[in-house]
Amino acid sequence: MSIPIILLIIFATVLAMEWVAWASHKYIMHGWGWGWHRDHHEPHDNALEKNDLYGIVGAVMSISMFAIGSPLVLGANAWEPGTWVGLGILFYGIIYTVVHDGLVHQRYFKYVPRSGYAKRLVQAHKLHHATIGKAGGVSFGFVVARDPAKLKAELKVQREAGIAVVRDAAL
Fold it and tell me: H or E segment at 120?
C-alpha cells in the first residue's frame, strides 16, 4: 500500500472519528449509556470517572483494527487498511485526551484560552454542560465546536419547549 493511501486512510479515520464521537456522545452517552457518563456531568473530586470507561471502548476499537490489519494475528486473512484505521482511531484518542480532557476540562494542565478556536471550543462545551441530566443539550462533538451564540439560542429553545433543564447562568 502506498504512503499517500496510508496517510489518506489515517486522516480520513481521524475525521470520521469526530462524527463517531459526536453520535456516541449524543445517542449512547446521553442515552442508554448515561450510567457511565453521568459522573462526567456532576461535580466530584475523583481523579477518574466512570465516563473514562468510554476511553477504554475507544482503545478496544483501535486495538481490534490493528489486529484485523495484522498478518501476525490473522495471517493471510489480514486486511492491511485495518492497521491504518487503528492508527487513525489512536490518533483521535490522543487528540481527544489532549484537547477535551486536557484543555476543555483541565484534567492535565491549566490553560484558559482567551481567543480563537480554543476559546470557542471551551465555551461550546461549557454550554454542553449547562443542562441538568441527560435530556436535551448542545455541542456533542469533542473537537468541532459550533458558534456559542447559536448554541445558547438552541438551549433557550430547548428550555422553553421543556426538552432540557438548563442552568439559568448558562443563558
Answer: helix 116-128
